[in-house]
Amino acid sequence: MCLGRVRGRRPAYTGAQGAAVATSPLAIAVPTAASSVHAPLLLDMATATIALGRIREARASGTPLPEGAATEDGTPTTDPEKAVMPLPLGGAKGSGMSLAFELLTSVLVGAPIFSAFHSDDPKARKHRQNALLIALDPAAFGDPDRFTADVDTTLSTLKGLPSADGAAGVFYPGERSAAVAAERAEKGVPVTPKVWCELTESAERLGIAPPTPVA
Predict the structure, then answer these.
(1) Could you tell me if 58 and 65 are in contact, meaning their C-beta atoms sit under 8 angstroms apart?
(2) Continuous segment of H or E residues that includes residue 42
(3) Cα separation of 54 and 51, whole Å?
(4) Please, are residues 11 and 25 in contact by the beta-carbon 8 Å criterion?
């Protein structure tokens, strides 16, 4: 039998006790030219120091959390099994961003999550997810081909900067993820024994044949 649990609460808010706001992620994607050697820029970040998914991954692999990433009911901890609340990214700055994103992605669309979560209605604590999507057409600002060419030039300039001592290189958001995706498409996706155990048990329960693992 596979044993484990998944706990997840909302991150803390600077100056407040207990769980408060959501992780309120921000995602920005910027295309590069079709012929570019650069992968598109893909920034995907939470306003918490660490995303809840990362805590779950750390539990599955038994990897300690970074210092100052999460708390155990107010006490900082690096133990993913004890982590209850992620801390806001950059203290008050992360808290402020999370609250601002709540207003834009939830209140603006008429589905407040934060105030409902902290109300007396137990049903309001069920997981919900809102999003605000904004698409900008480069053609509305000028030549789209010139835009992607300038994006490539910007990324090439960044990649050409000298690396700091001890750094593996200069990377932009999405670059390493694209490389990992290409590698896993060729060689497969690594899965921890605990996760594989849970997947095979779920597959057996649902009558689904799991894929054959590759050593």
Answers:
(1) yes
(2) strand 41-45
(3) 5
(4) no
Segments of 67-118 assigned E as strands = 70-72, 75-77, 85-86
What whole-number distance in Å separates Cα of residue 103 and Cα of residue 203? 40
Let me know: does 66 contact 198? Beta carbons within 8 Å.
no
Mean pLDDT of successive 10-residue segments in the chain (215 residues)? 41 69 85 94 89 84 88 83 85 88 87 79 74 93 96 97 93 95 91 86 91 76
Contact between 65 and 77 under an 8 Å Cβ cutoff? The reply is yes
DSSP letter, residue 30? E
Name which of 7, 31, 12 is nearest 23 in CA terms. Answer: 12
What is the sign of the dihedral through the CA atoms of 202, 205, 207 and 209? positive
| Whether the Cβ atoms of residue 169 and residue 161 lie closer than 8 Å to each other | no
Residue 163, amino acid: S
CA–CA gap between residue 47 and residue 195 (Å, rounded): 27
Helices (H), the chain: 52-61, 92-102, 114-117, 144-159, 175-187, 193-206
DSSP class of residue 74 equals T
Phi, psi of 201 (to 5 degrees): -65, -40
> And the tokens for 182?
């290409």
φ, ψ (nearest 5 deg) of residue 11 = -65, 165
